[in-house]
Amino acid sequence: MTDYRRSTKYAAFALSLAFIAAGLGACSDDDAAGKNGVVCEADELYDQLNDTCVSRDNAVEEDAGFSDTDEQGDISGDPDATGDVDEEDVIDMAECDKDNDGALSIDCGGMDCDDNNPAVSPFLNEVCDNLDNNCSGTVNGGIECTFYAHTRDALYKVDPFAKTLSKVSDVPGLQDIDTHPDGTLFGIKHDGVYRYDSWGDYWIKQGSFGRDIGDSNGLAIDQEGTAYITSDDKIYSANLMSGRATFVGQTGNFKSSGDCVVDKGNTLYMTSKEEDQMDTLVELSKDTGAGTPVGEMGAIGFEKVYSLTAAWGTLYGLNSNGQLIEINQRDGTGSLIHTFPDKSFWGAASTPNR
């Protein structure tokens, strides 16, 4: 209502100006003369009623019909309005928007279903996590939040939030898999590099390593599309188009226990296991291959972690007992998320954007 009254008031103001200029016989700047020969200056208008010249500013203010107080206070045009606001109409933002995300809580008549978390708001888009980000009533509604993992003979999609597993295809005895930043899925066997054709649902051999690289059991592709392969205490780079492998260096006192991975920060990790120890997370140099343990040795707390995945800013592991684990990259410790009965995982692939 306020916008309508404001527009009506200014429309009347414009009409009044036109009336002064046209209907009241305002003089031109060149020969502004009244009926008694009164001549007005360029910044004046002729007032026929009083047969005199008046300032243009005064004429506009008087005709507009409102004062400075009116414009700054009550712009409704209602002479009875005072501009006062009822106390019940004032919103206490400290109570109604506690998380400062711009959305009012449900208790205050808004639609923010969690006013203590700025990652939850009706103004947000849904992202892959354990939250109902857009207050739609569904966690991860309308988006797919899965990564690839495989057993000895089958490829699956794993949803770590819904804790579900769905089969995609058979696999030809791959040792490990990973996803290129463009979304292409690659895998390795001891004889070379393979690529998954999702349209034809089959695996194509890209080429042989061109050298004996031993027990190759881990594949990771970084953000630039460079592939790395771990084998015992050695690390290689590989051409994904030809399969050709190049020696990078040795990992030191660490041996690959089953997988390697590149996270969102483009850091290369692998799982390692020493005799009589649990699996540990090791950071590797992509230039020299040298390994550095993350946290204490054996920190993951789970055995036979043969699969590593970086997805949505989180590092996940899967092991031969069907356990899905979240791994803390600061200290290497693992937390159990879910167990998929009767599944023994051999490898996993990160999401394209990690």
From TrEMBL:
Residues making up the signal peptide according to the UniProt record: 1-26
Entry keyword annotation includes Signal: yes
Claim: Signal is one of the keywords in the record: yes
Domain of life: Bacteria
Pfam families: Cu-binding_MopE
Annotated region described as Disordered, given as residue ranges: 62-84
Keywords per UniProt: Signal
Acidic residues: compositionally biased ranges: 62-73
Name of protein: Uncharacterized protein
Phylogenetic placement of the source organism: Bacteria, Deltaproteobacteria, Bradymonadales, Bradymonadaceae, Bradymonas
